[in-house]
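Record pair follows.
FIRST:
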Amino acid sequence: MKLYYSPGACSLSPHIVLHEAGLPCELVLASTKSHKLQDGTDYYAINPKGSVPLLELDSGERLTEGPAIVQYLADQVPDRKLAPPFGTLARYRLMEWLNFITSELHKSFGVFFTPGMPDEAKEIHRTRLRQKLQWVDGQLAGKAYLMGDDFTVADAYLFTVTNWADFTKVEIADLTNLQAFRQRMQERPSVQAAMKHEGLIK
């Protein structure tokens, strides 16, 4: 397999999951600015959307969209319990979280990376995003992870997008449950390995 990624982008989520799953994978750096690979290859020729992550399977098939990729990876190693089994309510709860993170958090953070976005618009989005994160903080009360005591692929995604809070000046320091969650995530070997590879930590 190959995972096309960009340091600190949403592709960090499947990168973490790959370490959790213990699956071998070639990591290919794809610039989100130039949309080129390190050898000069046009990334649009690989993914017409131009975004990361993209997972290329050994068969040559390609998967895009982080929530789909992390579920695929989890299902390759069911014994690791990175996602509940299909058909169970717990699996739909996982999909519920992945959908919320991608549509309400990821896309909301994305506004701040849009060139030319007026400061007034950013402030409106900052306030709304803060409200959504306060709700997440409440959902984490009494839990180690989003689904309870056990890590799932949704946790990798939440950790990844909340990493953008400092850069976008979205205040989360007082969200104690979210901060405790982030600390637990930072201590996981999979998170440390992925972040070191991407140059995010030493």
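SECOND:
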Amino acid sequence: MSQADATKSDPIIVRLAELVCAFKAEQVTPLALKQARTCILDTIGVTLAGAEEPCTRILKETPGVADSPGKSLIMGTSRRTSALDATLVNGTASHALDFDDFSGVLGGHQSVPLVPLLFALAEERGATGRALITAYVVGVETEIRLARAVNFHHYDKGWHPTATLGIFGAVAAAAHLLQLGPQRTATALAIAASLASGLKANFGTMTKPLHIGQCGRNGLLAALLAERGFDASLQVMEHKQGFLNVFNGPGTFDAEKIFANWAAPLEIAADTIGLKQYPCCGSTHSAIFMMQELKREHGLRHDDVAGITLLPHGRRLKHTNTPRPQTSLEAKFSVQYVCARALKDGAVRLKDFEGEAHFDPAITRLLEITQALPHPEMLDDAEEQWGAEVIVALKDGRTVQRRIENLVGRGGAYPMSSDELWDKFSDCAERTLPREQVAPLFERLETLEGVSDIAQVTRLLEVSPLHTRPPEKIRLAPAGTEAAPETTWVP
């Protein structure tokens, strides 16, 4: 038997653990480093934005949660607790607004199962920024490789991949940071298979972001148990009653896709990784981006517009065709509303989904002259399904239009600029942090690989109990999360 055949005969968990532990910082290419650093920065921003959302606040106030002594910060507070509890709270906050980055392959959000965990664990253990980034990269590799093996049957069946697959990324990241070694890493991954959970039936409720907090906490718990000698079945993935056959079902997965060309190229450097520039349904982003480009190129003023035609890819319109949103959550799923906002204000921000912002008279006028139709040239079965065209008719008789074939968030060929990243980060962070801390935090995260101790970053995430949040930053509407149709993933 060849060495390759012998390797393939090993349990899936064992093979995966070997790859996780063999991964070195030198394998993080310059592109992967840049993308990882950006995604981590973005995740910290949206975590701060979600720190005072109702789901996070209730969790912090629940007896027994975050009561344990420890070194790990609950972001946006002065409160420190165990790494497990900090991961639970910060992880829930990170997904509270559904403003976090996403992966078109994962069918979910790759960073939130990892970043809150890694910051909590790194602060507890005194890890460096470089070690944290390397652990993050191997965590993303793990969860997206698993997604290649099981999706989209896994997603369509009703599982929430951010949690059910993200937990394996969480274990891989934690195990790498802890340097557990192959045997204990395999055990931790095997434990995680029994802790994986998250049902799409709870989308649109506070329980969706709780999936993420619990996913990160469970992943860290699995790693900490394995570190101390806990055991688990190493055949837990391929067993007839194991993860793949229970969560997916026979014939609906291909485990070898986990291992094919592992880390070559790295998943974090792929064009399928996208940031959310706008705090609304990801399926609206290509149309918003085109509207912003038209406004910039032609100096459009909303009161000079006579009519708007929006032509997203048909799969993007099915769940975003909400001509007259009546609630803040409906506004997040209205391509008409968000494009009207982009035209009027040149931006789409968190405040646009608070209170009665969707009833702004200028926006109402634009909605009355807007139509949205599936693009006739963008086929449902096309490889690229994230395109849109925007056509604006002006009162002076001119018509301007802009089209993009595929935009999976802002990444790949259309990365967010430093200014755009700052706009989003500051809008998020100032909802929790004193304004004077925001710019230093942003700058420190932009050079995270040079940080010798993560405590240098977390002290900028700490807020005095005497700090009062600006009234205009308080969210008036209940936290909403994104509901998805049964067979089409919505990031």
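COMMENT: The longest strand covers residues 305-312.
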